[in-house]
């Protein structure tokens, strides 16, 4: 399953790129999906210092951490990574999760069209229902994080 979300950030790609590597989310979620149990993002970080292909990345939420490995590092245009492990509740039904951020200059370079694509594979009984729930949760996470980054 693929979940893709695009937004416009009124800053150039060079100013948006650092948000992908080290940012704290300060907004309060509005979407009811978070009140129903979806993990609320809190921070993303590069725990080993500078980013590069093969470096670790972490996505921290109020319910746990997704430990990731960077698979593509092309500042300030493209960042991709895959999940290695997680302690989040959805971890038991997700067999694979990978993300790609694409940053495209817009408005003559004064803004960025930011696209996040998350590919997820769900396993287990009632896979279609689990995939639906995971997909709805991922879309809410994408929108929530993008809303914070646009501020």
Explained architecture:
The chain has 151 residues and is α+β, with helices and mostly antiparallel strands. It contains three helices and eight strands, in the order βαβαββββββα. The chain has helices spanning 13-21, 32-35, 127-150; strands at 2-9, 23-24, 41-45, 56-61, 64-74, 78-86, 94-106, 111-122. An eight-stranded antiparallel beta sheet has the order 1-8-7-6-5-4-3-2. The mean pLDDT is 95.
Spatial separation of the terminal alpha carbons: 29 Å
Main sheet strand line-up: 1-8-7-6-5-4-3-2
Order of helices and strands: EHEHEEEEEEH
> What fraction, in percent, of the residue positions are helical?
10-25%
Model regions low in confidence, pLDDT < 50 over at least 5 residues:
none
Average pLDDT value?
Answer: 95
* Rg, Cα atoms, Å: 15 Å
Find the structural class using helix and strand composition. Answer: alpha+beta
Write the layout of secondary structure elements.
Blueprint: E1 2-9, H1 13-21, E2 23-24, H2 32-35, E3 41-45, E4 56-61, E5 64-74, E6 78-86, E7 94-106, E8 111-122, H3 127-150
Antiparallel strand pairs: 1-8, 2-3, 3-4, 4-5, 5-6, 6-7, 7-8
Essential attributes:
8 strands, 151 residues, single chain, 25% helix, 8-stranded antiparallel β-sheet, alpha+beta, 3 helices
In short:
The protein is α+β, with helices and mostly antiparallel strands. The chain has helices spanning 13-21, 32-35, 127-150; strands at 2-9, 23-24, 41-45, 56-61, 64-74, 78-86, 94-106, 111-122.
């Amino acid at each position: 399953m693929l979940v893709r979300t695009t937004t416009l950030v009124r800053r150039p790609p060079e100013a948006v790129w650092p948000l992908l590597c080290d940012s704290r989310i300060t907004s309060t979620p509005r979407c009811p999906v978070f009140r129903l149990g979806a993990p609320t993002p809190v921070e993303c970080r590069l725990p080993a210092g500078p980013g590069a292909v093969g470096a670790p990345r972490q996505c921290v939420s109020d319910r746990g951490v997704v430990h990731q490995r960077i698979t593509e590092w092309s500042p300030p245009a493209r960042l991709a990574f895959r999940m290695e492990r997680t302690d989040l509740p959805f971890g038991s039904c997700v067999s694979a999760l990978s993300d790609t951020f694409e940053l495209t200059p817009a408005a003559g370079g004064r803004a960025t069209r930011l696209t996040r694509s998350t590919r997820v594979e769900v396993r287990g009984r009632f896979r279609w229902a689990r995939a639906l729930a995971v997909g709805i949760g991922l879309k809410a996470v994408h929108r929530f994080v993008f809303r914070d980054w646009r501020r």
